[in-house]
Amino acid sequence: MERWSEFYKRKIKISSRKKMKIISKLFITICIIILNACSANISETNSFTISGSDTMFDLTSNLAAEYMKEHPGISINVIGGGTASGIRDLIKGQTDICTASRNLKPDEAKALADYYNSLGMVFLIAKDGLSIYLHPENNVKNLSMSQLKNIFNGKINNWKVLGGKDTVIIPVIRNPNSGTYLYFKEHVLEDEEYSSNCLIEPTTKEIAKFVSEHRNAIGYGGMGYSLNVFNAVVNGVEPLEKNIQNDTYPISRYLHFFTTKNPKGLIKNFIDWALSPAGQIVVRQSGYIPLWENKL
């Protein structure tokens, strides 16, 4: 009996050792998995995506490029496509920051609330005067808000009516996915429909290019794209920086960053930097108006 008792004791001791070895191996394996997961998270925080406004595409690309230059190892992917597209990406969790040239619509705000139990966060990044693009050789230089409305809704279709040459007006607009399209529709057309004669271009850059090549065309877009066109005087007010800053230019607006929640970590750091004097210098260099002029 004593032999069998001794045998069972040894067997129990051996089994206990095996169990400890198994537990140790499992513990080491779990630690490795956790470390790998942490490494993956660290690498993920070194990159993020910004998508949305076509008006803001060059501005955001310039901000991203300068930020990455100052922060080696950070990767920022900037995508255009329009404000509406960026807001859809934000709601679906497919972008970290949405760029927008307009405010959220009620249905977009509701979708954010449904998905995230929050209306998200809005950051004003820059100010922009919505320029009315004319060909440099067009002798019409000054247009009222009423005249703009009637050009783009189709009630005025010849430059002669406005004191210009006897030629058909070609109004050029963005597609409905664009925040600028909606902003113009609300603030200039007063929610009337665009004329079916309007030519649709996919980007603001293409609108400016078309107008620069066609003397009887008229379009609209951000200040940053108006290098080769004439910026019309609207209601007797030139689209100068001081007039946009004090809102005397009638179609001035803010440009925004949207996030689903209060940003943290890298996203917060980037937004803070964009609003800092260094970021606002990039805003000015991109053709837009900085928010913090007194700090530059």
CATH topology of the largest domain: D-Maltodextrin-Binding Protein, domain 2
Question: How many E-type strands?
Answer: 12
Overall pLDDT: 87
Quickly name the level 1 CATH class of the largest domain.
Answer: Alpha Beta
Q: Which strand order spans the largest sheet, edge to edge or round the barrel?
A: 2-1-3-12-4
Order of helices and strands: HEHEHEHEEEHEHEHEEEHEHH
CATH architecture of the largest domain: 3-Layer(aba) Sandwich
Helical stretch count? 10
Number of domains: 3
| Biggest sheet statistics | 5 strands, mixed
- Spatial separation of the terminal alpha carbons: 93 Å
The whole-angstrom Rg is: 29 Å
* Annotated CATH homologous superfamily of the largest domain: Periplasmic binding protein-like II
Shape: globular
Protein structure class: alpha/beta
Strand content is: 15-25%
Q: Helicity range of the residues? A: 40-55%
Question: Uncertain regions: pLDDT < 50 for 5+ in a row?
Answer: 2-16, 18-43
Describe this structure in words.
- The structure is a single chain.
- This protein is α/β, with parallel strands linked by helices.
- It has three domains: 1-43; 45-128 and 255-295, D-Maltodextrin-Binding Protein, domain 2 (3-Layer(aba) Sandwich); 131-250, Periplasmic binding protein-like II (D-Maltodextrin-Binding Protein, domain 2, 3-Layer(aba) Sandwich), CATH 3.40.190.10.
- 44% of the residues lie in helices and 19% in strands.
- The chain is built from ten helices and twelve strands.
- The strands form three sheets. The chain has a five-stranded mixed β-sheet with strand order 2-1-3-12-4.
- The longest helix has 43 residues, at 2-44.
- It is globular and about 60 Å long.
- Mean pLDDT is 87; it is low at 2-16 and 18-43.
